[in-house]
Structure formats: structure tokens, C-alpha cells
């Protein structure tokens, strides 16, 4: 696969996204320069090299799939790559732009564009795994650059790394952080959100807003009932689940259940979203 070069080949591809995950990669600074001395980075438009059709060992993919041309390009990337790794919420769960899946996107486009029929837009914004086979998914908005670097080293060594899917609360406990939900009554999503950020928001006395997606075995039913008991409205609870990872189960089911409850002025039945 390496052709004339004996060094592993890496590509970083972008689809519909804000570029934040690529920037997290770039912000590694010196460790990224060290990596560049051991691998050939053939495509990384944000950093300079461009070769979308390069045959590589690892293809990192940022962003969701919004157009038919996106889907065609993604299929080619899968064909040219030994490993495909999604980086960030957009690639793994559709991201912010997937919120259009919950509404009439056609109506939105008609209200903005004079001739929306010329837009090449899929009915829904799709995560990468909904279109091609994905070998590994890294969550986050943005992704953790150090985690990307560690995954790269593991894959080049020939094995899939273990990703920690435990809740953010575990990171808080390891760092001896005071719980902002218990002490300040904030609607922290830490109990149902997987770690990876190092509990960044709670360490700044802010509530987690679930940018790393659902934790393993997240009990969203019990958690959302707790949020309701604090006085949050069904709509507010639904928004907490659907904000960034609206296509990720069980957040998707829970969020939709609470929005339906808001419309009918009821509460979801116990177990909704599990």
C-alpha cells in the first residue's frame, strides 16, 4: 500500500463541518511535527497538502454527509484507505447540522434560496457510518487532539485502540472536582456523556453539555426524570439531548420523546430513550 515510500500514509478529509476537529489536530503543535517525521501526510487541506485520491493507511474524516457528491467522495475514500476513523460529533452523529433532520429542511431552503431545486442536498445530514464502513469513531466537539494522536500510533502499530466510554462523572472524580449538579443545581450532562474532554467544562464550574455523545450504558430515562424534577420543561430537556449529537442513540430517542411531550403537555413514559 505504501508504494515508493516505506512510511505509513495518512490523510485528513473534511465534509460538512466547522473545521474545529482539524484545528484540534493542528493545535497539537510539536507532537504533530514529530508525527510528520514518521508518516507521510498526503492529504490535509487545513495544513497544506492536497491529494483527495491518495491511497493511505489511515483516513481521518471530519464532518457529516450532506450531498450526493459527498457520498460519492466518501465511498472513494473508503476504497483507498486501510482504516477509516471518524473524528468529532459531525462525523460520528451528524453534528449541529443534523438538527435539520428533525424539521422540514425543504421549507427552510425555500425560505432562503430563490431556486432551491438546484441544491444538491440529501434529505438528511448523515454521519459517516451511515454511508460507509467505519473502523473507529472518536467523539467530541471538537475531538481531543491528543486522543487522535494516540489512536494514530495504535493503528500504525497494527491494533485498534481501546476508547474509554465511561461517563464524564468518572473524570470529575479522578480530578477531585466538586459536582456542579449537586452543589450548584446546574443541568450537567456528565452522568450520561462519555468522557474524552478531561471534564473540561465542570473543571471551569460549567455544566457539561454532552459534546462527547452518550456514555456506555447511559441511563437517560432516570437522568431526564431528574432534570424534570429540578423544574426544567420538557422542551428544555429535549434540547439538552439533541443539541450536538441529535442522531446518536439513546440521546436521539430521549430528545424526541421530550419534544413530543412538550407538544402534548405531558411527560414521556418511564424508559423513553433507553
TrEMBL record:
Molecular-function annotations in GO: 3 iron, 4 sulfur cluster binding; oxidoreductase activity
Keyword Iron-sulfur: yes
Gene3D superfamilies: NADH:ubiquinone oxidoreductase-like, 20kDa subunit
Co-factor(s): [3Fe-4S] cluster
Limits of the NADH:ubiquinone oxidoreductase-like 20kDa subunit domain: 18-152
UniProt cross-references to InterPro entries, sorted A to Z: Hydrogenase_assoc-protein (IPR051349), NADH_UbQ_OxRdtase-like_20kDa (IPR006137), NiFe_Hase_small_N_sf (IPR037024)
Keywords: 3Fe-4S, Iron, Iron-sulfur, Metal-binding, Oxidoreductase
SUPFAM superfamilies named in the record: HydA/Nqo6-like
Key word Iron present: yes
Protein name as it appears in the record: Sulfhydrogenase subunit delta
Species whose genome carries this gene: Halothiobacillus diazotrophicus
